[in-house]
Every structure is written in structure tokens, then in C-alpha cells.
Amino acid sequence: MSCSSLLGLCQYETNKLVRIQSVRLGSLKWSLNAAILLFICVMMLWNRKYQEFDLVVSSVTTKVKGVTEARLPGVGDMVWDVADYSGPSQDKNSFFVVTNVIVTKNQKQGKCPEVPHTDRLCKTDKDCERGAWDELSHGIQTGSCVKFDVLRKTCEVSAWCPIETKRSPPTPAVLAAAENFTVLIKNNIRFPAFNFIRRNILPKMNSAYLRSCQRANDSLCPIFRLGDMVREAGENFSKMAIEGGVIGILIKWDCNLDPFMQHCLPKYSFRRLDEKESNRTLYPGLNFRYAKYNMVNGVEERTLYKAFGIRFDVMVFGQTTIFIDWLIGTSCYSAEVGQNYSEKKVESVQDNQKVV
User: Fold this and answer.
1) Which of 66, 241, 299, 339 is the most buried (most CB within 10 A)?
2) pLDDT digits over 255-279, tens only?
3) Which residue intervals of the chain are DSSP H helices?
4) Could you tell me the fold of the domain covering 53-106+168-322?
5) Are 233 and 272 in contact (CB under 8 A)?
6) Per the confidence metrics, is the pTM higher than 0.85?
7) Whole-number Å distance between alpha carbons of 177 and 241
8) Closest listed residue to residue 315, CA positions, set 257, 273, 264, 265
């Protein structure tokens, strides 16, 4: 191999640019660049890719108000306030309102016949097992077969007697007037990435506003009528109140924190969350039991309530966006090295044609 061939291996080739000094060609170049940049900006604005996103962190508290008088079968007229119809406890981000009830009064610890069922009827004591119970039992079997009514006999149990016998809730619902109860929803949100905090009770909402606001003419009012929420979920309150159910309260925060288009307000919507058709589900509606105890002549008694009602679950969704500043890139070389490289790589020539 010759010496010239070896030197050829040590050479480096690069492309050379010719810079044409032309108003006509320069205008065309920058017009195309401007069109491309405009298209990119429009697409970024359309898809909001120029912003940074953060998901919401939320807390919710509720306060239900309303009083009604209802006649309970076997009990008589009774005034119900928030302590009566709210149930024994409230879950996080939800509240419960009793709309119907079955009452069993004057229960005492003792022995009594079990409630008749297809597999609970007996003929003799041999049909009853002492100490037995199952998931449908109201007590522990004593081993005796006793008369329940004129035609039927059941196994005797140790239980709270008399045992609750009614299974179907009253129609119409005992507390149908709960439709007019109201609830104040207090929702605090935070976007951690931007340390942004807001609540659905806005600064302009004072006590006078909260006493008079109505969602019919103000979509930001945080006080809701129970009947209106059920109606907006596409349901009939009077029908739903009989067996109960679950309504979802959806609060959506779609916030834009850019100063030139700032917006961060809640939007409310409602939907039913449980299966409402009795013929399509084994246990329709929603119910639970609780008792109130008292002493009568030194003996503890209780009143058992099987409460049917509507649970309202508050679910908060949202995200926020904020503008990201564009960064200008810097050269990796010194100005002197960069200029020298450019002069060698780029050759400038003049375009003698004057027409633009």
C-alpha cells in the first residue's frame, strides 16, 4: 500500500453548505418555517401538550339537615331528626339517610319460636338440634319443637324475643318526606405538584349566600336537596325510598392554572350505583339493623330497627394543568470554535437576481 493511500485513511470528509444571500429564497424559507411552527403550536394548544398535569388530592365532609314526623306501624307518630335518620355511623366520603323502617318493639332475652321457613318447620323435638344455628338463624336452638301458630311448628331458640317477623318494607316508604332534606357538601382539594389549594365553598360564598342559594339558578351552590340529586340520577325518590339504594355524587375539578386562561371550578353530576331491579338481583336495595336499649323494671329491653335507606357516595375527580416555560439550548463549544467551524463548513455566495 502506498504512502498516499495511508494518508487517505486519515482524512475526514464532511458536507459543505452554500449560503445564498437572497431575499427571495430567504423569504420562502422563513415562510415555510413559520407555517410549520404555527401548525405545531396549534396542535399543542389543541391537545394541551404545552402544559404539565397533576392529579387531585381531596377530602369531603357532609352535613344533612331536615326534620319530619312519620307514623310507624305498631309504634305511632314519631319525630325524626338527623340523629334518627342518619344511622349509627357515617363512612368516609359518604352519608346515609333512612327512608323506610321495620320496627320490632319490646324485645327481651328469652326463648321463643324461630321464624318459619321452608327448611325450619319441625314436627317433633328430634327435628331440632340443641345448640345449632346457621346464617339465617335469629338465635341458638334449644332442642325443642314448639308451636309458632295454629298450623306451623318451629324449633325453639334462645334469642331476643319476640323475633322480627316482617320481611317486606312498608309501601309507601315511612320516611318519604326525606326527599326534601338537604345536605351541605364541603370539598377541599389540593394539587401537590403546584401547591394549589381550593374548596367548593368559594370565597364569595358567605353565610347569607349559603342560607339562600339554590341549585336551580346557581350550579355552584354546595347545598343539595336529596330529591333533586336522585332525580338528576334518573330515578324516582318515592320508589327508591322503599328498599333503598346507592347514589353517586360526582365532583369534577378540571383546572387550568395558566394566568391568561385561569379556571378552577367544580362540576356536579349524579348517578345510581346499585342494581335497582328486584328481579335481577338477589338482595336489592340497601338496609341494615340497629337497636335502641332501655331498662324496664330492671330488665333490659330493646327496640329493633331494620332501616332501609339511600347511601350517597361522594367521588372527586380532577386534574390541573400549568404552562411549561420553553428553554433555549446553549452551544457545547466556545463562540470562537463555533464561528471558525461555521466559516469552514458554510460558504456564502450572492444571488444577483433582485426579484423577490
Assistant:
1) 241
2) 887 766 678 899 999 999 988 765 5
3) 3-9, 23-47, 82-85, 207-212, 226-232, 237-243, 335-345
4) atp-gated p2x4 ion channel fold (2.60.490)
5) yes
6) no
7) 10
8) 273
